[in-house]
């Protein structure tokens, strides 16, 4: 893959994950929607890392570290939001912590956070 093709791959993969998250919200599959929100941001950040550094992103799920690797300055609010969103990757995957995540993933919580993720997603996308 060329550099341009790889950057395009990450952007399209991120957009697909974001669309999936929104579809899952409509289906009221809130915990799954939040997981895909995380995935969308992770993919868009990994694309930005490659675009800005010409190197592959670290094989991590920590959104703050990926933003730092891409050289993106985050406000304190953005940093805190990304720290919260990063927890969904773990909480949605492992049975020992899933129950608490299910309880947290209410319609109200999911609506609030999909709005925040949407704003972050657009902000990152505008940096492509």
Automatic annotation (TrEMBL):
Domain (HEPN) ranges: 11-116
Signal peptide residues on this chain, from the entry's feature table: none
Coiled-coil parts of chain: none
PROSITE patterns: HEPN (PS50910)
Stored Pfam families: HEPN
Designated name of the protein: HEPN domain-containing protein
Taxonomic source organism: Candidatus Chisholmbacteria bacterium RIFCSPHIGHO2_01_FULL_48_12
Organism lineage: Bacteria, Candidatus Chisholmiibacteriota
